[in-house]
Amino acid sequence: MMAAISAADSGNQVVLIEQNDKLGKKLFLTGKGRCNLTNACPTEELFDNVVTNPKFLYSAFYDLDNVKTIELFNLMGLETKVERGERVFPKSDHSSSVIDVLRRELKRKGVDVRLCTRAVQILCSDDSISGVIINARGSEKTIDADAVIMAVGGKSYPLTGSDGSSLKLIEDLGIRVVPQEPALVPFESGDAGVLSMQGLTLKNVEISVHSGKKMLYSGFGEMLFTHFGVSGPLILSASSYIGPEDYKKGITVSIDLKPALSREELDKRVLRDFAKGQNRDFANSLGELLPNKLIPVVIKRTGIEPHKKVNLITKQERQQLCDILKNFEVKITGNRGFDEAIITRGGVSTSMINPSTMECKSINGLYFAGEMIDTDALTGGFNLQIAWSTGHLAGKCR
Ligand SMILES: Cc1cc2nc3c(=O)[nH]c(=O)nc-3n(C[C@H](O)[C@H](O)[C@H](O)COP(=O)(O)OP(=O)(O)OC[C@H]3O[C@@H](n4cnc5c(N)ncnc54)[C@H](O)[C@@H]3O)c2cc1C
User: Fold this and answer.
1) Is 98 in the pocket of ligand 1 (CB under 6 A)?
2) Ligand 1 within 6 A of 166 CB?
3) Phi-psi bin for 387: left (phi > 0), alpha (psi -120 to 50), beta?
4) pLDDT, tens only, 43-76
5) Which of 125, 40, 20 is nearest to 80 (CA)?
6) What is the pLDDT of residues 359-381, one digit of tens each?
7) Is the pTM above the cut of 0.85?
8) Complete domains list, the chain, with CATH
9) Dihedral sign from CA coordinates of 149, 153, 158, 159
10) Is the CB of 370 inside a 6 Å radius of any atom of ligand 1?
11) Of all protein residues, whose CA lies closest to atom 27 belonging to ligand 1?
């Protein structure tokens, strides 16, 4: 939609082809239905939040950065607000408002929007675009065109229409595609103790994620336990740094449940808690230190008899407890796949695209935009910013 608006702005006659019966099906789901459309951080920080190929986005981000994106949406009639973490949302709290302004703008710019229409083949002659074959309700037609901007999305949440199948159109043209993987995706674990804590949210914890001795990610924030394993902002971010090979080798999430306390401070804190009731059972002495759901799991891992009186707990046993509180390990068996991934990693190789125009290096008039390009970012509005910026640049450069 952004690419079509921008291409129309540059004086092109534009046809927008969408296979769904409405525009923006995935956009509708974003930000839990509120659409976190960008982030109001300083523009340089956009790059820090891009996990794959940030440098490729230099021209796109400076053509339409986050500040200009907000201005553009405001100009199109969308009121916006900034929330915690500089996340930008429509003032209405409805993603449909974002879709509405885009739809209105498409109409105002005279873009010919064809719904329920699928692009089935990109046509080229002499390494230049000549048109597209479309299929609308079973009948095929050719649209002549001297440029095509592809913005077919990734592979996550395939029910929205972005199922990765359209990448075949460009593979047919010999364009290199980096294998697609789910990212910003929850982790599965088979650990019964972990699964017993479903519904528990941990705030202000530090996690590090390892594959063997290699540390893949560390971060501070919030996570939660679910019926299948672990999720929440920290886990989703971690998943963006983990590749298929890492999953094969085995991944462990280590949670520091008390990151504000050094080991010595934690030991003193445990001693103070024990001193509040010398004759209390161990199992009844951790209520001020840990949430209820975590207590039986931690106790089991210490190997200390739950009914042991705290005044009988040895220094060594206390150390064992502190070790677990500082390094609570969750073994990961895999991730939840594309059905639950917020974003897709991989796609059209950036080596095939001119970063100043988004045009394909090997086919004149073929442009790429959005999630189908091999670049992805963390949560916070950065993935949509990639889509707006690359779409805007592609439309402008054609
Ligand atoms: C649950 C969820 C929440 C998210 N929340 C946020 C958020 O708050 N903030 C954020 O920045 N990002 C968020 N994202 C990521 C963001 O939605 C995507 O990065 C963004 O939508 C990518 O835009 P796109 O235009 O490249 O692809 P898409 O939005 O996937 O659009 C691609 C479109 O192309 C159509 N299409 C595909 N092939 C064809 C074909 N051959 N012919 C015709 N049409 C075709 C599809 O039907 C689809 O409508 C979220 C993602 C999910 C799944």
Assistant:
1) no
2) yes
3) alpha
4) 999 999 999 999 999 999 999 999 999 999 999 9
5) 40
6) 999 999 999 999 999 999 999 99
7) yes
8) 2-182+344-397 (3.50.50.60), 186-336 (1.10.8.50)
9) negative
10) yes
11) 153
